[in-house]
Amino acid sequence: MGKHTIFAVVALTLVWVILVENISVGSVLTGVGVSVVTLFFMHKFLPFKEVSNINFYKLVTFPFYLVGQIYVAGFEIIRIIIKGSAVDIVSIRTKIESEALRVVLVDSITLMPGSILLDLDGDKVTMLWMRDEKESPDPAAAEAYIERKLEKRLLKAQKVGE
Fold it and tell me: For the segment 85-104, what is each residue's pLDDT rounded down to a tens digit?
């Protein structure tokens, strides 16, 4: 048990106490217990080698960015639906090399209004994509959107020289 494990237990216990909104001895002890069990299962089912190429300090801001992008995409989809929409199946290639970050990318795509993940095969992402019916069915538009918005942020969290 290293100092990182102790830090993780303290951080997870703090999150637990915040979520249960109770600072009592029982709440803190329950938080420590839940944290230890969580770390045990994380170590067992998510080997460190799978996530060792991710810079978590740069990844920590991604959820906040994603929430903002979900709202932006929601308003864009409302506009597209009002003007008239069409749906296409598009395949794009991602530059993200980390399998864990690719999963974060495709989960993020699924959360975005107007898109649904169909398949992830290596670096190829196939998804259902809603577009303005007056625009041409160009998969490059979907690729540019994903590259510009989500992938660019996740590439910052990928450690160089994997």
Answer: 888 888 888 888 888 888 88
